[in-house]
Write a structure and sequence with these properties.
This protein has 11 helices and 13 strands. By secondary structure, it is α/β, with parallel strands linked by helices. The strands form 4 sheets. It has a 7-stranded parallel sheet, sandwiched between helices. It starts with a helix and ends with a helix.
Amino acid sequence: MIEIYLKKIITCIGDYNLLNKYAEFSNKSIFLVTGGAGFIGSNLCESLLNKGYNVICLDNFSTGNKNNIIEFINHPKFLLIEGDIRDLNTCINACKNVDYVLHQAAWGSVPRSIEMPLLYDEINVKGTLNMLEAARINNVSKFVYASSSSVYGDSLELPKCEGVEGKILSPYALTKRINEDYASLYTKLYGLETYGLRYFNVFGKRQDPNGPYAAVIPKFIKCLICGKAPIIYGDGNQSRDFTYIENVIQANLIACLSPTRFAGQSFNIAYGGQETLLTMLAILKKYLNVNIEPTFESERLGDIKHSNADISKAKKMLGYFPEYSFAQGIEHTINWYKNNSVK
């Protein structure tokens, strides 16, 4: 399967060395996943463990959930460090002997960041800077970190293309833009190989459907399963490039194997599609076999109207070819929520 996938990459970018790339991940490789008990982080931990690698999970459980990692908490190649990225010494100790850092720890949600800008700066900016410094001190091979499509701000250009960003619309987006600038500097000044992944509306198993700041897909699924009307802010015609979690896992791993010459840059990580909230809701209703109409409320401050990614840069430089479409991802996600209690 992997060889077939790599041959597809080779056809597009002509790098015949890629056939041997996965050999670079030996069973002794050590990955540090920050925010490893969160939605994306826990999926990364699980995937890495299934591939036979050593995984260190760093999380303070402010937004992460111990239930997300309970299945592999006793795995012989898994180590949990309960700590905060705002503490530099914790970051330095966590990075010792680590080959690859997958930095996912952050506070998400645009609306919440507007309410708590100081906290977002402290966690997302200072915390990321601590991790960059810790990785530099420990001579980490690759530093792959989560950025966000929110960095495109008020840009009306579609699809969204790296290098054509608009004005920032929220503190959350600003923290991600600053992360990218710091990471680029760490590559230029210190030689730390950094790779920013601009995630576009990631969804999948273990995504928390609860709370006022929950992502739209798990929140809608919970409402429909529980027989409640989902809330749409605006008219529902706003669009998103919904990206299934397996595509994000794939992007993180290939970024760890990417050529040094592409370090210090950021890449759109999405499927390259565009679904309106109304269309997405209709698909969920069909899969769940329910007929519940949404409630409409006023648009929220800081929300982007339309989001659709140009992923050609990630394809060309990283060899990123997303394997799961929106429809495939939705089916897998709904099946997971059906098999796991949603309350």
